[in-house]
Amino acid sequence: MTTFTTDDRIKAYDIEDQEDRERMLRDQNRILAEEILSLKAKLAQSNRRADSWQESYNNAMDTMAKMSRAKR
After folding, report:
1. What is the pTM of this model?
2. Which DSSP letter does residue 42 get?
3. What is the DSSP string of 12-29?
């Protein structure tokens, strides 16, 4: 029959704790990676929207300039 000493039990708990910490860190890394991808997608969408608004603004300014020149 195997008898475990207190030191053996402490080592076993340390290994379990380390495995739990590693598992928790892997989960956190996965969650953070998903959040980063989501934020990148939102940023890309915002950039496309901003480009569209900028194009609309430029078109409006061009139209105003043409109308202003036409009135002269």
Report:
1. 0.59
2. H
3. HHHHHHHHHHHHHHHHHH
